[in-house]
Design a protein that fits this description.
Chains A, B: This is Redox-sensing transcriptional repressor Rex. Two copies of one chain form a homodimer. With 251 residues, the first copy, chain A, is α/β, with parallel strands linked by helices. Chain A is built from nine helices and ten strands. Chain A has two domains: 70 residues, Winged helix-like DNA-binding domain superfamily/Winged helix DNA-binding domain (Arc Repressor Mutant, subunit A, Orthogonal Bundle), CATH 1.10.10.10; 111 residues, 3-Layer(aba) Sandwich (Rossmann fold), CATH 3.40.50.720. Chains A and B meet through helix 1, helix 2, strand 2, helix 4 and helix 5 of A and helix 1, helix 2, strand 2, helix 4 and helix 5 of B. Chain B binds a DNA duplex (22 and 22 nucleotides) through helix 1, helix 3 and strand 2.
Chain lengths: 251, 251
DNA sequence: CACTGTGAAACCGTTCACAGCG
DNA sequence: CGCTGTGAACGGTTTCACAGTG
């Protein structure tokens, strides 16, 4: 994802597969809902349905954590909530800083899901001096100058970047230099980070583009081989790399 | 992801692998940047670095699109931009509706990346009557009552859900009933949709939880087998599913 | 000669199917 | 008997290494 190594080789001896890790939060959410309704146990089938996966996958996933179920019965909801929380490291509180308090940064600061489980917004940081001191989601925005001090004082190891693309790498470098080792990047840029720093990327326009691809597929399919509509241009025909480049390019 | 089938089996005869599709937007962005700097050609090595992947993967990816490179030289930037745009369906304009104009919805409406490449925000929809008529990002918010009419009038096939979790499934059902076949879901819920509808999910708290997992790993590792600090609870010891359930559970 | 395009190998993730256990 | 836990089969993805070509 980033140029430097992004997440370690995933081949730690006792490692849980990445794909499984990515689903644990899903299970945890479903379990928490059950817990709130005081449901004592679930079968893999029921829980899988609630989490939107199939039961075989869920059982395999849980098998990496240990044998936490009871054959013939299912899983103890409370117990699993605890085990998964612990595995994810949510039994401790992670202080998080958000850098870039524009529309998105403000939305993130206000997002309830942050504060609720294991995360605490330790500070909001923005480069605009006019923002400094203004409270967003009840937290006063601080100026970028303070970044290193904030990271250090609060022992922050997770940073969220919600700046414009142009500023992202620079902010990233400062976060990393100050000791942050996990970054959630909302800016549409590839970040490069040193070994040992994890970057996850959330990119709205990429998600839309993937949807558009499938959408186009559907359209092309339902009227397969029809003239008009989506011009499913020659796939194998024009191989010559230049000469007849259509003058498209939106801008 | 969702309960109903989410994306088709990916085994369309001439299909481009999902993993490749997910990277095309990345390549496109890197290429667009090169194009703006009037760079005429790139090697797979250079482009791969810019996109944050390795060159073998990039070449394999491009090989699914056809033979668009020149051996000994590289790829023609303009030509590739066009080919990838076409493959992703971005040579047409996709009208998109955003439902739920809270902090996040507003951020999305203002997000430049939406409008810039192939997407147009056709309407903003919110359930709060007080919002109706108020412009956000220059577009007046419309009431949920109008949803079906808006979808229909604008020929919208892509919807973005930025409502609270509780409203998401209901909004989703209405979008689908009105003809939307691709959904980008920001609400922290599993959506169930009928066959043929694609759902992609963006979940902030899940991303953070995945980072927390790796973060905890790092902490446990650098002081392996030390007392104090992160209590790396017994991994293989307590197997008995109940009896000694720690009374944790944050709420 | 440098770089693409691609078979083949290695790897990872998912699904199947059933043995094993409460 | 019902449901978990898991080895084995499968399919997709990444990486390797090099033949092929402008």
């Amino acid at each position: 994802m980033a140029t430097g190594r992004t997440h370690r080789p995933a081949t730690r001896s006792r490692g849980i597969p990445e794909a499984t890790v990515a689903r644990l939060p899903l299970y945890l959410r479903a379990l928490t809902a059950l817990s709130e309704r005081s449901v004592p146990t679930v079968s893999s089938e029921e829980l899988a349905a609630a989490a939107g996966v199939n039961s075989a996958k869920l059982r395999k996933d849980f098998s990496y954590l240990g044998s936490y179920g009871t054959r013939g019965v299912g899983y103890d909801v409370e117990y699993l909530v605890y085990q998964i929380s612990r595995e994810l490291g949510l039994t401790q509180d992670w202080p998080v800083v958000i850098v870039g308090i524009g529309n998105l940064g403000a939305a993130l600061a206000n997002y309830g899901g942050f504060a609720s489980r294991g995360f605490r917004v330790a500070a909001l940081i923005d480069a605009d001096p006019a923002m400094a001191g203004k409270p967003v989601a009840g937290i006063p925005v601080q100026h970028t100058d303070e970044l290193e001090k904030i990271i250090d004082d609060n022992g922050v190891s997770i940073g969220v970047i919600a700046t414009p693309a142009g500023a992202a790498q620079q902010v990233c470098d400062r976060l990393v230099a100050a000791g942050v080792t996990s970054i959630l990047n909302f800016a549409p840029t590839v970040l490069s980070v040193p070994d040992g720093v994890d970057v996850r990327k959330v990119d709205l326009s990429i998600e839309l583009q993937i949807l558009a691809f499938h959408e186009q597929r559907k359209a092309g399919e339902e009227a397969a081989g029809e003239p008009g509509a989506v011009p499913l241009a020659p796939k194998e025909s024009g191989k010559g790399p230049d000469g007849d480049v259509p003058a498209v390019m939106p801008a």
